[in-house]
């Protein structure tokens, strides 16, 4: 066959299909407006289409015949009016007769049957039946009237015309997914509001749950879609997003405040320590009596303690902001632990506490931040000494367990009550919160230990029995493989959450909690 003839046939077929769709849309609109008691079916559309095609010839013949008899001035308008009048009369009679006959047949079959109700009318939202091109063919649902009052005459029109321009691509992709074999596609869309009221938004947020209806050959024949109003859910999302932004801004403001205050306090503290050292050394003249020397020493000790607290606050703010940089190096862990023991031995002796260590030979090297490890051990030993009365003992143990390094600090101190265990490790939180607290401190020691352990990818465990003592165990990867590099996009949660609830042994009164101290992303 000639290719030009084939293309001509295709063009004529496309023109015929377009003419048929346009005629069906017009007839559906007219029938829905004037015969609203029942939706038009395919048989009525087919009969009206044939009637329209037949009267197309009458529209030419009637004016031409009357023109020959009455003349063009009177024949043309009379002929056109007569043709349209006969067409409308025949169309009304055809539709009314078809529906009347169908009603009589239904009554004859089931005289006592109740009228059929669409089961979708009991379901919430709006149900739409779409063809493969996305044109709306039927509607239903419990909230049909509410949605149809919002939409712009959706029947026999592509549903995409109702969708906001920015979401039309998502709707087209959903239809393509159904054509390619997907059975269910759920998308959130914004529908354009045709008329804006004083208290109405420009868009209506809806969720469209689309289900594919397939024929015997597996090809998509229709789409059944349920539309639900999600305006309340979107408002909740916006509220949650706003609260999250406020919390993030408050967290950043607090971290910046801690960093700024801690940094500004170090300058005068260094001056206080320097001048108190000069006075204690009597470089510019001897002090007159021992009380003056005692006061100078107290000034030096208080300044050193405050500087330690400020440094801890500065380190904590760095961890919270995700900007604490670990300087990894390989070093002898036994030597580092021995240095920490020596640094705190005078403090233990002054309080009457025996500080000992049990370090086996061959501990070897560890890859970690040596300063951070010293802070971990010093804070844990310092806490143990602080809460151990005179005559008690604090023991430092270390060992290798596979590829991990384990350090444990045990004491015979006051212990921790089970109900207080969940408070451990929170910044500025102290277990003894009564007015006559006997131990000074800022409540930052364990919080810093947990943060530094998290940065190394280690675990943190506490076992305690009130009145008998506490054992704190920190486990770190010996090769540094668990180290978290913190940057602007990788913030370590500080302090790490307790991964398991506190469990209490009622018989022994022993509370144990295991904190994995994982470097979670905040």
UniProtKB/TrEMBL annotation:
EC number of the protein: 2.7.13.3
PROSITE patterns: HIS_KIN (PS50109)
Matching SMART domains: HATPase_c, HisKA
Substrates-to-products reaction catalysed: ATP + protein L-histidine = ADP + protein N-phospho-L-histidine
Keyword terms: Kinase, Membrane, Phosphoprotein, Transferase, Transmembrane, Transmembrane helix, Two-component regulatory system
Ranges of compositional bias, category Basic and acidic residues: 507-522
Gene3D superfamilies tied to this protein: 1.10.287.130, Histidine kinase-like ATPase, C-terminal domain
Domain Histidine kinase stretches: 260-480
Residues covered by region (Disordered): 495-522
Record field: transmembrane: 55-76, 82-102
Gene Ontology MF, one: phosphorelay sensor kinase activity
This protein's name: histidine kinase
